[in-house]
């Protein structure tokens, strides 16, 4: 039976030709993705689903997709796909990480000019026959400072364009090395400095727990008076209510938004303001970019469906069918240990190392290393996959080291991941017992044994009487149910760690309150 792909969003028709040429049947139904029920009714007939951003692939949709093997996103963000549910069902999710970068960077620059010269309001006024020459006084771009939050593919292109416009560029990105910043012609700074110096701020990060509301009321208040903000990345990076208040007070002189916390955004308190420019998530919408991403996604999907080749998958490590059963639990362990490092790191990671002790050192450790680096990077980058993780780490100036030793330890196999940050060094070790389940067995130098749970809290504190009672009491008062509680310390009265599995994600307010408990040095919510 021929492979069948459904194209449920408005992709370039060029994709259909590629599928046909590769012997894959393609149904082009570009508005189907907006109709959740119709999509659920037909999805069971397809091996592949090619989408942009309108189709929401939920766990419910996936539950009806018995035949589905692959979801191809013609674009970057896969936040409209429940990747965890797809992974659980063995469905590969792939994207096209670079095809629309230039186009989106150009949109950010276009929005910056629109803001600086009030072009939309001036256009409306002129076309209404008013000729209000004195009403629209703009600001010059040259000589101004552009603050780029998130300097990956798109942020780097924006930096190059801004330098060409004779702007000064400062960038905040925990994964940007000073050398890389220098080669881009930008100055690497911390967020506070960026806020204090930027005349224009442009956002180019994925939406993650760390970046949600990165422009919060507090951070907006730290920005220069008269700052102008551009968001072409993801809704949710800017606190929209706080932005309204800052625009009302005049602290923020203007904002240009391509993305919104709820999309489609058909109403918003931000609408109707002269100093706000809005576009309906058009960042990637050029003929050139759409042609590129459609061709690329069709090639990648056809390659997988006809030859089993995987490229740009966000949820699939490269392991052969024979290696899979032996390697899978260690790959899972590596990914989770990496995710711990990424989440507890308090500063940019400069070096990442992974040490294999015992039997695991004889395995195909490259796949585990890739999974571990991917787990760490995925905290910061939404399109990283195990195949690209090491390349992306190096590209961001992170040194990666792998050490395999056939030495004896307390465990048959022990994996330790270690990160050197600009502030400190952190390490976490784990193993897989005979039940096949990965466990943490050491945090830093402190032994502590815990299985992984979807939501956990990691705390480091001074080993003093009364701490555990206060800790558990605080969680209880916040309605947070403890599933398991693992403790360790280096010596009586020394440094202690707690690793607590909880039922559901930790509320940020609870984590903040934990940090205020006497003796607590660090409290971090972990998600796996
Ligand atoms: N508006 C659109 O139509 C459109 C089009 C394409 C991409 N996008 C979005 O633009 C964003 C950037 O895309 P990209 O291809 O440049 O991604 P990228 O992964 O190449 O770059 C993202 C950068 O953000 C940095 N980052 C992560 N967490 C951070 C944090 N807490 N603080 C500061 N920096 C952080 C990463 O280190 C990385 O360098 C994505 O969210 C993507 O979905 C939007
Ligand atoms: O497909 C689109 O129009 C938006 C794409 C963009 O948000 C992306 O993440 O690539």
Structure in words:
There is one protein chain. By secondary structure, this protein is an alpha/beta fold. The chain contains 17 helices and 22 strands. The strands form four sheets. Strands 8-7-6-9-10-11-12 form a seven-stranded parallel sheet, with helices on both faces. The longest helix has 21 residues, at 287-307. The radius of gyration is 25 Å and the shape is globular. The chain starts with a strand and ends with a strand. The mean pLDDT is 93. (2R)-2-hydroxypentanedioic acid (2HG) binds next to loops.
Approximate strand percentage: 15-25%
Integer tally of domains: 4
| Main sheet makeup | 7 strands, parallel
**Backbone CA Rg:** 25 Å
The CATH class assignment of the largest domain is Alpha Beta
Number of strands: 22
Question: Which cofactors or ions or other ligands sit in this model?
Answer: nicotinamide-adenine-dinucleotide, (2R)-2-hydroxypentanedioic acid
Strand order of the largest sheet: 8-7-6-9-10-11-12
Shape: globular
Q: What is the residue-mean pLDDT, rounded to a whole number? A: 93
CATH homologous superfamily of the largest domain, by name?
NAD(P)-binding Rossmann-like Domain
CATH fold assignment of the largest domain:
Rossmann fold
């Amino acid at each position: 039976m021929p492979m069948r792909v459904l194209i449920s969003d408005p992709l370039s028709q060029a994709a259909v030709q590629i599928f046909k040429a590769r012997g894959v049947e393609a149904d082009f139904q570009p508005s189907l993705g907006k109709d959740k029920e119709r999509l659920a009714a037909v999805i069971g007939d397809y091996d592949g689903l090619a989408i942009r951003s309108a189709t929401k692939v939920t766990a419910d949709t996936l539950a009806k997709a018995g035949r589905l093997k692959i979801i191809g996103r013609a674009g970057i963000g896969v936040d409209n796909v429940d990747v965890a549910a797809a992974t659980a069902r063995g469905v590969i999710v792939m994207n096209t990480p670079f095809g629309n970068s230039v186009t989106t960077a150009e949109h950010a620059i276009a929005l910056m000019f629109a803001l600086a010269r009030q072009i939309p309001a001036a256009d409306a006024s002129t076309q209404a026959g008013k000729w209000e020459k004195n009403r629209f006084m703009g600001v010059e771009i040259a000589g101004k400072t552009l603050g780029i939050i998130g300097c990956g593919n798109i942020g780097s292109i924006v930096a190059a364009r801004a330098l060409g416009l004779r702007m000064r560029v400062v960038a905040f990105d925990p994964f940007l090395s000073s050398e890389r910043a220098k080669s881009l012609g930008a100055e690497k700074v911390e967020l506070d400095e960026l806020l204090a110096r930027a005349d224009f701020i442009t956002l180019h990060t994925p939406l993650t727990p760390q970046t949600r509301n990165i422009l919060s009321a507090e951070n907006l208040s730290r920005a220069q008076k008269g700052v102008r903000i551009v968001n072409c990345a993801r809704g949710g990076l800017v606190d929209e209510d706080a932005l309204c208040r800052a625009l009302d007070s005049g602290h923020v002189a203007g904002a240009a938004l391509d993305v919104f916390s709820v999309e489609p955004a058909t109403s918003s308190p931000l609408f109707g303001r002269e100093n706000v420019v809005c576009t309906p998530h058009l960042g990637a919408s050029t003929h050139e970019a759409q042609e590129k991403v459609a061709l690329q996604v069709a090639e990648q999907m056809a390659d997988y469906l006809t030859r089993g080749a995987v490229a740009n998958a966000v949820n699939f490590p490269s392991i052969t069918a024979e290696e899979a059963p032996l390697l899978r639990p260690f790959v899972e362990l590596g990914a989770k240990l990496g995710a711990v490092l990424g989440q507890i790191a308090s500063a940019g990671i400069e070096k990442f190392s992974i040490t294999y002790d015992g039997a695991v050192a004889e395995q195909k450790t490259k796949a585990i290393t890739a999974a571990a680096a991917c787990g760490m990077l995925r905290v910061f980058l939404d399109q990283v996959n195990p195949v690209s993780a090491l390349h992306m780490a190096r590209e961001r100036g992170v040194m990666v080291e792998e050490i395999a030793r056939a030495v004896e330890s307390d465990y048959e196999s022990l994996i330790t991941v270690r990160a050197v940050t600009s502030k400190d060094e952190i390490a976490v070790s784990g193993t897989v017992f005979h039940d096949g389940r990965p466990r943490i067995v050491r945090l830093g130098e402190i032994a502590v044994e815990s299985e992984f749970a979807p939501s956990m809290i990691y705390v480091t504190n001074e080993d003093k009487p009364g701490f555990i009672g206060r800790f558990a009491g605080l969680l209880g008062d916040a309605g947070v149910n403890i599933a398991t509680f693992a403790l360790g310390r280096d010596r009586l009265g020394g440094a202690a760690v707690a690793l607590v599995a909880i039922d559901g994600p930790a509320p940020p307010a609870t984590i903040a309150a934990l940090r205020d408990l006497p003796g607590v040095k660090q409290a971090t919510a972990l998600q796996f």
